[in-house]
Amino acid sequence: MRLWDDPVGKLNVVLGASARAASAPAMGYKSVSMSRRRIVPLLLVMTLVVIKVLAANGALAQDKGSVNPKPLPPLANPNDPKIGAKELFARKLLPSKGPAHVIGSYVKGCIGGAEQMPLNGDTWQVMRLSRNRNWGHPDMIALIKRLAAKAHKDAGWPGILVGDIGQPRGGPALSGHASHQIGLDADIWLTPMPDHRLSREEREEMSAVMMVRDDRLDIDPRVFTPSHLLVLRDAAQEPAVQRIFVNPAIKKALCREAKGDRSWLSKIRPWWGHDYHFHIRMRCPAGASDCQGQPSQSEDEGCKPSEFAYWFSEGVLHPKPPAVPPKPKPPMTLAQMPAACKAVLHAGDAKP
Ligand SMILES: [Zn+2]
Fold first, then answer.
1. Which terminal residue of the chain, N or C, has fewer Cβ atoms less than 10 Å from its own Cβ?
2. Which residues contact 70 (CB under 8 A, 6 or more apart)?
């Protein structure tokens, strides 16, 4: 099973175990071409479910934040074993002290000793500050700073807008993604940074720009420009980056436009929910023995028409709501997470 191929983690949340077991392998390029006939109908059903859930509680780049976020109320019984781990991790406002320590997987894990992405740099600004999700592994923070400088130098952007990385101690969040749990996932807006310092209001309210044409079969060339290819290429060419998730129409455009060395295209993967931002996923850092990464994908460019047939099929482009709404699954508890995450959760705060 390759559940990790679901960057947002919604499949993990909404699908029953048997559906996951049967369908998750289809998320790899190879598996799709090998057993398309059997798996596509099931995928279509899954898509409907996923889209519905995304619409219901997705918290994506285009979702607005609040200038005056209310602190979460204290939990009546934080030791209740049935309580969702997301309730516990969302209430930690600072990382645990100590060196960086990645525990578990992108969709079930946490991070100790996370580092904060500074809110402003010469070539970046962090968005949606009310979410407090600008924390990640030090390698991720360094990567984003490097990519920001490259977006300026190579693509001519003033800089990049940084969306969600992770919570101070990682773990599941109350809204949005089910991945982003170990400080090795980050969302970068496809909207270039404006040439001025954004106000607090703008950071919460400014809308990201939709990059995909109305028919969803291609990018909108008025907003998705050749500079976007350069930014995505820079990110994909970083050795520590394992995958980048984009809307399928964006992948199609990159396949059409990329010149010269195209090997980086293998890291760019079509996925739901990436019309406004792209998602960078790093490999486990060297020596991080508690980090459960995922196998590398095929080195194939993933540009053949057959790779897009599923994504541009009618059921995916224009999904119908499911006849029977999916039953909500109980949230992941702390006991279901790697044991070391309990220690991370209860450790003292790092110095702010
Ligand atoms: Zn993401």
1. C
2. none
